[in-house]
Design goal:
single chain, alpha/beta, Rossmann fold, five-stranded parallel sheet, two-stranded antiparallel ribbon
Length: about 160
């Protein structure tokens, strides 16, 4: 699978990349909505988009408007609580799932797979998701990075 992540936090990118590698998936990290939109326009083989609500002081609204015709899962990461109106507005603009930081990276990847299954079907998942031949050490390294990220998030 190929997943776009739009986030200024390099640690978030690194951890999601590590977890994605367990299934031979790829997380492409962007620090601006404009760069991600340009990539998406030129590369339609993206399977999901994960993004922060604000990146470089730019709100996600414009990006969501530009990607309404893109039928792939869109997951929002947020550190703040959203009210019902905000949630409804984001869902109307195409956000499939809202995840609150700190988050479990394994759950994020599971959510991507489940949303893709709903949108594209199980056969699509089987074609795109390549089981990894990763050994226990790769899993251990990924879990250690997850733990490091969670420690950093909770120490703020």
């Amino acid at each position: 699978m190929k997943i776009i992540l739009i986030d200024e936090n390099e640690e978030t990118c690194k951890v999601l990349q590590e977890v994605a590698q367990l299934s031979q998936s790829e997380v492409l990290c962007f620090s601006s909505f404009a760069d991600a939109a340009m990539y998406l326009a030129e590369n339609p083989d993206v399977d999901a988009i994960i993004f922060e609500r604000r990146v470089q002081n730019v709100d996600v609204e414009n990006f969501l408007t530009k990607t309404t015709d893109v039928d792939i899962p869109k997951l929002l990461l947020t550190a703040s609580q959203l009210n019902n109106e905000e949630i409804k507005s984001l869902e109307e603009k195409g956000v499939d799932k809202i995840l609150t930081k700190p988050f479990n990276p394994l759950e994020v990847m599971t959510d991507v797979v489940e949303l893709l299954k709903e949108k594209k079907g199980e056969e699509y998942i089987k074609e795109r998701l390549h089981p990894s031949d990763a050994d226990r050490n790769a899993l251990k390294r990924a879990l250690q990075k997850i733990i490091e990220l969670l420690k950093k998030l909770f120490s703020r």
